[in-house]
Design brief:
mainly beta; Porin
Length: about 180
């Protein structure tokens, strides 16, 4: 319920901001999305790749038409054999944007940050945290007359080392974005 309320408030804020159609130096982007995460089997109770649901928000600033620096916060929840897993990440990403068309903008990104993994069961709870890094590819699909709103689709791979074990989690994320600034 808290996530739904936070997402609703974030959406209202996004719609209230002034927008600019131009993507380039001095513009900014905010967005929210949901995703499917394949958790590494290293973090599984049943030694399988568990899948979870991710929800996240991000915001970035375009220093040039090609380079953006963004912050990203996400929360992934999964369940495995009676154990609830939670992965929270806080990332800073360097994004390189390509511009083949006004309405489509592919990108690649690399990010560093922090990951916190928790496991809760009827027997108790454990948690650990570590540094994390990620790489991703994706694209923004802008729509509308001014091309200020869009859909962002991303495939990311996150590496973290909680519980002294290196793990890679893969995520397919789809979200709504809003460009503004200048």
């Amino acid at each position: 319920m808290k996530k739904a309320v936070a997402f609703g408030l974030f959406s209202a804020l996004v719609l209230a901001l002034p927008a600019s159609a131009e993507v380039g130096q001095g513009t900014a982007e905010i967005g929210a999305g949901v995703g499917y995460t394949s958790m590494d089997s290293n973090k599984s109770v049943s030694n399988t790749n568990d899948s979870g649901t991710a929800i996240g928000v991000r915001g970035g600033y375009n220093f040039t038409k090609l380079f953006e620096l963004e912050g990203q916060v996400s929360d992934t929840s999964a369940s495995d054999s009676g154990v609830d897993l939670g992965l929270n990440t806080y990332m800073v990403n360097a994004v390189f944007n390509f511009h083949p068309k006004d309405s489509i903008e592919p990108y690649v990104l690399g990010g560093v940050g922090y990951a916190s993994l928790s496991a809760d069961s009827s027997f108790g709870s454990v948690s650990d945290s570590s540094n994390a890094f990620q790489v991703a590819v994706g694209s923004r699909f802008f729509f509308g007359e001014k091309k200020q709103a869009g859909l962002r689709v991303e495939l990311a791979s996150l590496n973290e080392k909680t519980f002294n074990e290196s793990s890679i989690h893969n995520d397919l994320n789809v979200g709504f974005i809003w460009m503004f600034g200048r």
